[in-house]
Amino acid sequence: xxxxxxxxxLFTNFIxxxxxxxxxxxxxxxxxxAKFEGKSxxxxxxxxxxxxxxxxxxxxxxxxxxxxxxxxxLMKLADKFNIPVITFIDTPGAYPGIGAEQRxxxxxxxxxxxxxMSLKVPIIAFISGEGGSGGAIALASANKVLMFENAIYSVIxxxxxxxxxxxxxxxxxxxxxxxxxxxxxxxxxxxxDEIIKEPVGGAHRNKEEILSSTRETLNNSLKEFNEFSREExxxxxxxxxxxxxxxxxxxxxxxxxxxxxxxxFIGHARKIFFKFKKALIVGIILLTALLxxxx
Length: 295
Fold this sequence. Notes:
The protein is α/β, with parallel strands linked by helices.
């Protein structure tokens, strides 16, 4: 199911807002204010489209700079009026076209991440299909990142990774295994917070079931932050991202360092002697025998 399906069925009174007030409208993202369980929320969804015409119109879910700037504009508005932000992530990545680059695609993505990290209202992100590269992270820097069981989330597509590393897109399967882009792997690494189980065969097989699961998860996630102050919400999000990767820090040298302490040279020499005692004794005996033989 695409973002439009969730927006139409989870929320009421959705008002679609357009334009970044700088350049134009981006059809790859649906954004606007709506009601969820009687409360106001801001909904932002990356929309791929469902047939050829709609996919061309939506640019296959690849957002341009104006899409990110529109999202920033609305997120700042939501923060001003203390309205939670809900995002639906489904994109292969940000649009890499010449026009997008000329209008500052990288700056727009960076500004969107910065905006997400600075908000003092809850942000709940759903990775519903494909979460690719900075185009996804720009809207997924959230207090809670929820991922559908069969969705993927990675810094680059497996084909792109294989092309860069091995100059061979056919090695995409090896790249996918190495990248750990599945929901179970990402949950182990604490990059996502929760997995939403899908019906047998995928979410598209039973849309009502996945809709019910999503509604329940979203409701519970929003309730978690009811007792939080604005500052606590901001601090929780910051700590969440700062803690990623802390359990297995990168070390240039191993923990068992082999540096010799100047003040403990004798102790270190004794350790080496007892460690290689047998080899040293055999070596001394052989050396003595050779000296006696030649002398």
